[in-house]
Amino acid sequence: MSAYTRLMDGLYLLCMLVAAVALLIMVTVIPMGIFARYVMNGALSWPEPVAIICMIIFTFIGAPVGLRAGTHICVSMVTDRLPQVPQRVLLRICDLLMIITCLVIFQASYSLCEAMWVQTLASLPAVTYGEMYLPIPIGALFTLLFVIERLLSGDQSQRPIVTLGGTH
């Protein structure tokens, strides 16, 4: 196992942890907001933006985990019926297209973060829109790193550390 793969193992576990914590916070704050609004008759201003931030973190930091584990949505009806060599060629083409996609998303989301860096959220003034959108370029970068790993070391979805969550 290469040093890069070991580094990606650590990044994989970190992404999984961050996404899990974001999901936990999100499912905790939403009921708090509902309770405050309908039981206490006093709406809180912060649960909704916190839940949105957690959803962005969960989505864009969790997506690389799904890609590495092979649990992302994949339509393989045609490629599964092809011989081994064309399958490998198409997988490499998909990986190259993923690299292009990651670079485009990174560039666009970085520009968005940069443009929105000083504009604060009205209901959560300690956070700017740029900070809120920061998981998007970070997630694109992490996804790019996992695609590069797949190009260098092959599919990682059957390794014990990747199947840790029992998603296969």
Describe the protein's architecture and organization:
The structure is a single chain. This protein has about 170 residues and is mainly alpha-helical. The chain has one domain (about 5-165). It is built from 5 helices and 2 strands; from the N terminus they run H-H-H-E-E-H-H. It has helices at about 5-40, 45-70, 85-115, 130, 135-155; strands spanning about 120, 125-130. The protein has a two-stranded antiparallel ribbon. Strand 1 (about 120) and strand 2 (about 125-130) form a beta hairpin. Helix 1 (about 5-40) runs antiparallel to helix 5 (about 135-155) and helix 3 (about 85-115) packs antiparallel against helix 5 (about 135-155). The protein starts with a helix and ends in a 15-residue tail after the last helix. The mean pLDDT is about 90.
